[in-house]
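pinning this so it doesn't scroll away 📌
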Amino acid sequence: MSEKDANSERYIKIARACLRAINNSGPSEQSREEKVQLVYDAIDDAFQHEFEDYRQSLAVMSTVLERIASGQLDAEASADLARKTLGKSGYNAINKPVH
């Protein structure tokens, strides 16, 4: 899947979450502001869900970089650790998504 397709899919998931919030907002006993807040909450929840993988990858990569920066690994061990980390995160050696 290309990055454009992945972004389109993320957008669709977030849009669907918004539509669910609107459809589930109930009849007129809720104020307009409450209904709008439900949509905002749905957007926030969807974004949080979509970016959880990125946050986890960032945490792993930060730990690996700290380990490499500590100087305790030789050049080959550092390069090997970097390759393994990039492979697990879905990126190849030139920082392009692997799909």
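📌 and the second one:
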Amino acid sequence: MCLGVPGKIIQKYEREGLPYAQVDFGGIAKEICLAYVPEAEVGEYVIVHVGFAISRLDEAEAMEQLALLREIEAAGEESPWPSASQESETP
């Protein structure tokens, strides 16, 4: 399963001939390669998967996806099923 997470571009620059950006994920900034979406600009949201921005999206879509991720996280905390890490601890 793949998971792409929305983040906001806060700085854009080039490194070794490739476009990069600092992308904010709710207060945590990470360096992300923009090779797949070089047209993305500061202030825009991108979907990031394993260090690469793979698509652009508008702010409303980003907020909707972040809300869904929070719901999934909350559901996992309430789940009666053991998490994968708990299952691996079971003898």
